[in-house]
Specification:
This protein is 81% helix and 1% strand. The chain is mainly alpha-helical. Helix 9 runs antiparallel to helix 10 (346-370), helix 12 runs parallel beside helix 18 and helix 17 packs across helix 18 (677-720).
């Protein structure tokens, strides 16, 4: 098969079997979760409202993005048709190479988009199924509640692992050495859907959360999930929309993109050395990762009694178990399969192991800056004594500091790849750079080895949060509420950790794609980047400045979208508080109205922000040419990484500082616990941080990779058509007009939701 040895052929089909095993494990966990008790009728009524809201949002989102997917499927077909096929494509398919690759890329794009949608939608629905079962289990056992929450999240993790590995392996089996050409479509499909789900989910969840907190907690002095608050169901739905569907799609596309870049860079080494091992090894490593995640995630459990730290230790124990199994198997695989390649077996082993260590270090670093036991959160907590201003200042300081350490960790990882692969004798400087970039790609492969664990940790957060909300809305006993509060607090930390890992993986993947960009340009035109990307050239510096500014514009529109939608939510919640009998508990709020506000606000922003990410590299590439486009990519990666870490960490730290105050004995007279002035200051900090950590920050991850993938797809076109001509400039003007439309659209108001005059409410015991 495609010139592979018998061992390689069997190994690749073995990887395909492991992908199927991962999906079977997800089905097994689903069967386990659905067997669990759903609790009382009252609990199930609240759960049904959450489920209905989640389904409504997902269905509306699907209708919004399907036309976009259809258009881009056709565009990707023609992206291949107008350039010459690669030598590998010609070698594999002969005279029919262009048509095979064109259809392959467009179909792979649709498959990547479909898999990403499946991961987000199925995973989120299983998280909703899990939340009420966690609440029910908390009535009797800490360990059962922990296990149900984590295993419900693991379903999403194994879908991410299984579908990502299945898609990449199938494309390799069908296309062989020409697989990178088709895999670009697969990676782009997954990345684009992740951007849609991240932007939409982030706006939805934070519009509801900010509105609920400002009016419910600060103005009315209500509890977190008081059933009288009209935004409470939208808030609980939003936790799943943002942190289950959004994060799952986000990490899924990182999983895809690292395979894409590893195979493109591996193919460059195949051209240099003639060894096919370079493109088979990453797939085998991924198969190991799925196996280790299955073992590690199933090991997470707790006793009948326990606290938040006990839950965190159990989750981290499962994480380390998967990491240890992976590293041992990496060593065995490299020793048996990579010992005869240039540089020896230890280099690929070390590169993948460095990636696993990177994930662990980011895990611990994020836990330090956002965990309730860490000094940074304690600093913010102390800042609440002097009011909201010092609370916000303390959080900004924590966020700024965290970016430095995160950047240094990623820089150290890339430097490790230089040390590992920069010393192979007998190769030119350009060939050595290809080895180093391959090493960087392998660190990304290693980092995302534990994808199943990472996504399980992230989904655990909203599942525990929803369970806590169900417990509060139904008046469960204090012991059960404490169990769920402890799990909820741990969930805040695990969500922050996985956001840190997602950002780190995004940067490593983007650097790998940047290396693939240089490699692919050199294949089409060896002279185009023969001197590298020179910042000393003014036109390259122009590209660098534009690229560095784009994440800020993108984040600005995301945050302002949350602000506009939250303003509508605040108005709606205030209006409903004035409905006669609502505050006395005689009537129920109109939860559906609040859900509609969040849904409409999210859908409005999906296409404009995604369009901005897709067309900006095309404009820069056409106007300033390929070297400036490289500078543009560098600016996007650097600026986006720093901004994303700052926003995610600061928001997570503000959130957990608020949690620590809420866990204190309630004593407003002495400025302690819920209802105190310190608590109100902490809520303001948390409210400011919410759109940063759950909307703008996470959305930058897929945005960075969408831009890099678009640049990778159009680079051969730009190199082949260096002179634009009249038609080319007309295309540029049309794209600039579309970009201007995205700005205008993103600044507009949310249509159709201004009328909040109807006093809609439902008598207690009635139907909504």
């Amino acid at each position: 098969m495609h010139g592979m040895t018998t061992f390689e052929t069997f190994a690749i089909f073995g990887v395909l079997g492991v992908a199927v095993l991962g999906l079977a494990y997800a089905i097994f966990l689903r069967w386990q979760i659905l067997k669990e008790d759903k609790g009382t009728q009252e609990m199930q009524e609240v759960w049904q409202s959450i489920k209905d809201g989640a389904d409504a949002y997902l269905n509306q989102q699907l209708r919004t993005i399907l036309p976009f997917i259809g258009f881009l499927t056709v565009a990707l077909f023609f992206s291949v048709w107008i350039v010459n096929p690669t030598p590998e494509a010609v070698e594999t398919f002969g005279d029919q190479a262009r048509i095979y690759i064109a259809f392959g890329r467009s179909i792979a794009f649709a498959m990547g988009a479909g898999f990403s949608l499946a991961v987000g939608q199925i995973g989120m629905r299983m998280a909703v199924e899990g939340n009420v079962r966690v609440a029910s289990a908390a009535r009797t056992s800490f360990g059962d509640a922990l296990q149900i929450a984590y295993r419900a999240g693991t379903i999403t993790g194994m879908l991410t692992d299984g579908l990502g590995l299945l898609g990449g392996t199938l494309i390799f089996i069908l296309f062989g050495k020409a697989a990178p050409d088709a895999l670009l479509g697969f990676g782009f499909g997954g990345t684009l859907i992740a951007l849609f789900m991240r932007v939409g989910g982030g706006i939805y969840t934070k519009a509801a959360d900010v509105g609920a907190d400002l009016v419910g907690k600060v103005e009315a002095g209500l509890e977190e999930d008081d059933p009288r608050n009209a935004a409470v169901i939208a808030d609980l739905v939003g936790d799943n929309v943002g942190d289950c569907a959004g994060m799952a799609a986000d990490i899924f596309e990182s999983y895809e993109v690292t395979i894409v870049s590893a195979l493109i860079l591996g193919l460059a080494l195949v051209r240099i050395t003639g060894d096919l091992n370079w493109i088979v090894f990453p797939l085998l490593v991924r198969g190991i990762g799925v196996l280790s995640s299955i073992i590690g995630t199933y090991r997470v459990s707790g006793g009948t009694e326990g606290t938040g730290p006990d839950a965190m230790r159990a989750i981290f124990r499962g994480y380390l178990t998967s990491a240890a199994i992976s590293v041992v198997l990496f060593g065995i695989l490299a020793l048996l399969y990579m010992r005869d390649v240039p540089g020896g077996w230890w280099r690929p082993f070390l590169a993948t192991t460095v990636g696993v260590l990177l994930a662990i270090v980011i895990d611990r670093l994020t836990d330090y800056f956002t965990g309730t036991e860490g000094a940074p959160v304690e600093e913010i907590r102390e800042g609440t004594d002097a009011g909201p201003a010092t609370t916000i200042l303390a959080g900004i300081g924590v966020g700024y500091e965290s970016t430095v350490w995160a950047a240094l960790v990623i820089a150290a990882t890339i430097f490790a790849a230089i040390l590992i692969y920069g010393t192979i004798p007998g190769y030119s400087e350009i060939e050595t750079i290809a080895f180093i970039l391959y090493g960087v790609a392998l660190t990304g492969i290693g980092m995302l080895t534990l994808t199943g664990n990472n996504v399980a940790m992230d989904s655990f957060g909203p599942i525990a949060d929803n369970a806590n909300g169900i417990g509060e809305m139904t008046g469960m006993d204090d012991r059960a509420r404490q169990i769920m509060a402890d799990l909820d607090s741990v969930g805040n930390t695990t969500k922050a950790i996985t956001k840190g890992i997602a950002i780190g993986s995004a940067v490593i993947a983007a650097v790998s794609l940047f290396g693939a960009f240089i490699t692919d340009v050199s294949v089409v035109d060896p002279e185009a980047l023969i001197n590298g990307i020179r910042v000393s050239r003014p036109v390259v510096f122009v590209g660098l400045l534009i690229g560095g500014s784009l994440p800020w514009l993108f984040s600005s529109f995301s945050i302002r979208a949350v602000g506009r939608a939250a303003g509508l939510m605040v108005t709606e919640v205030r209006r409903q508080f004035k409905i006669p009998g609502l505050m006395e508990g005689k009537v129920k709020p109109d939860y559906a109205r609040a859900v509609s506000i969040s849904t409409e606000a999210a859908q409005k922003e999906l296409v404009p922000l995604a369009t901005m990410a897709v067309i900006s590299p095309i404009i820069v590439g056409l106007v300033f040419q390929v070297e400036a486009l490289g500078g543009f990519l560098v600016g996007v990666i650097l600026s986006g990484q720093l901004l994303a870490v700052y926003m995610s960490t600061a928001g997570g730290a503000w959130d957990n500082a608020k949690k620590t105050i809420e866990d204190e004995p309630r004593d407003p007279a002495n400025n302690l616990g819920k209802g105190s002035e310190r608590h109100k200051a902490a809520v303001v900090g948390d409210t400011v941080g919410d759109p940063l950590k759950d909307t703008a920050g996470p959305a930058l991850n897929p945005m960075i990779k969408v831009i890099n993938l678009v640049a990778l797809i159009i680079a051969p076109i730009i190199v082949q058509f260096k002179t634009l001509g009249i038609v080319g400039w007309l295309v540029v003007l049309a794209l600039l007009a579309v970009f201007a439309w995205t700005i205008w659209q993103s600044k507009g108001k949310v249509a159709g939701l201004a009328d909040t005059t109807t006093d809609a409410a439902v008598p207690v015991g009635g139907t909504e």
